[in-house]
Design a protein that fits this description.
The structure is a single chain. By secondary structure, the protein is mostly helical. The chain has one domain. It has four helices and two strands. The protein has a two-stranded antiparallel sheet. Strand 1 and strand 2 form a beta hairpin. Helix 1 packs across helix 2. The longest helix is centred in the middle third of the chain and has 19 residues.
Length: about 130
């Protein structure tokens, strides 16, 4: 998937998120795979890799590559995508008189039991 084709497909993925509020996103779903490829291109426009983890490994091994120029891990990208999908779901249903969003749990957020505060999940990797 080249540059312009990637943009067309990732736009379709974003539209799908808006048309299906609160959809389930996994690393195996087509929309996430398109976002992952798009993220690789953001960090290295000439890359033919589809995996952010592979792009991280390749870019990290290049000399003098600052951390800001290395894409997030796949798990971190997934959690960020889940938070974005949750927010997009709220915006997509904002014209409804009575919104009924699901709990943020599972959408890149976790409820801290001691303080009853929602905190972002940065990664589920140990």
């Amino acid at each position: 998937m080249g540059g312009l084709e990637c943009l067309r497909e990732v736009t379709e993925a974003f539209n799908n998120f808006m048309n299906h509020p609160y959809m389930t996103v996994t690393v195996n779903c087509k929309q996430f795979q398109l976002l992952e490829r798009f993220t690789v291109i953001i960090y290295n426009k000439t890359s033919n890799l589809d995996s952010v983890n592979e792009a991280r490994r390749k870019l990290f091994s290049q000399k003098n590559r600052p951390m800001e120029k290395i894409p997030p891990t796949q798990e971190a990208l997934l959690q960020h995508t889940l938070r974005a999908v949750y927010q997009a779901g709220i915006w997509a249903t904002s014209d409804q008189c009575e919104q009924k969003p699901p709990t943020p749990e599972g959408f890149g957020w976790t409820l801290e039991s001691a303080t009853k505060t929602w905190r972002p999940v940065w990664s589920n990797c140990l």
